């Protein structure tokens, strides 16, 4: 898949694409928000390498030959009844990207030693969204 679609699961007739939503904490607002992202930050929605992306999830491109079915969903597989469990936290987005490349989920950030600081030093967070995209039927003889 092209770099924009890094990650996801491919089956014979469908694919699950993923993207990651980024937010930043500021002391002025006292909360995490995508509105707090700076010009040096990755975009609001990016791939797992914290690259590419867009500002609105509905603008995430679908690969050629595939079509969106349904809506994007937040990955709640690690939810455990706690919204914070869906997020990966870090000092910078590159720490989160590194954790994802190493195969860690939100709970694995602590294993990398990225969460042992006081809460004032945790400045960014990211969570996974996914969507199903089946291959659409093309007329016979039409190349993909």
Descriptive account of the structure:
- There is one protein chain.
- This protein is mainly β.
- The protein has one helix and seven strands; from the N terminus they run ββββββαβ.
- Strands 1, 2, 3, 4, 5, 6 and 7 form a seven-stranded antiparallel sheet that branches.
- It is globular.
- The two termini are 13 Å apart.
- Mean pLDDT is 75; it is low at 1-7, 110-119 and 139-144.
- Strand proportion: 25-35%
Q: Report helical residue fraction.
A: under 10%
Order of helices and strands: EEEEEEHE
Quickly count the domains. Answer: 1
- Care to count the β-strands? 7
Radius of gyration: 17 Å
What's the overall geometry? globular
Q: Major beta sheet, specifics?
A: 7 strands, antiparallel
Mean pLDDT: 75
Oligomer: single chain
Class from helix and strand fractions: mainly beta
Low-confidence stretches: 1-7, 110-119, 139-144
Span between termini? 13 Å
Count of helix runs = 1
List the helices and strands and how they pair.
Blueprint: E1 9-10, E2 14-26, E3 31-33, E4 45-46, E5 69-74, E6 87-90, H1 93-101, E7 124-134
Antiparallel strand pairs: 1-2, 2-3, 2-4, 2-7, 5-7, 6-7
Identify the notable features of this structure and list them briefly.
144 residues, mainly beta, 7 strands, 28% strand
What would a concise description of this structure say?
This protein has one helix spanning 93-101; strands spanning 9-10, 14-26, 31-33, 45-46, 69-74, 87-90, 124-134. The chain has 144 residues and is mainly beta. Strands 1, 2, 3, 4, 5, 6 and 7 form a seven-stranded antiparallel β-sheet that branches.
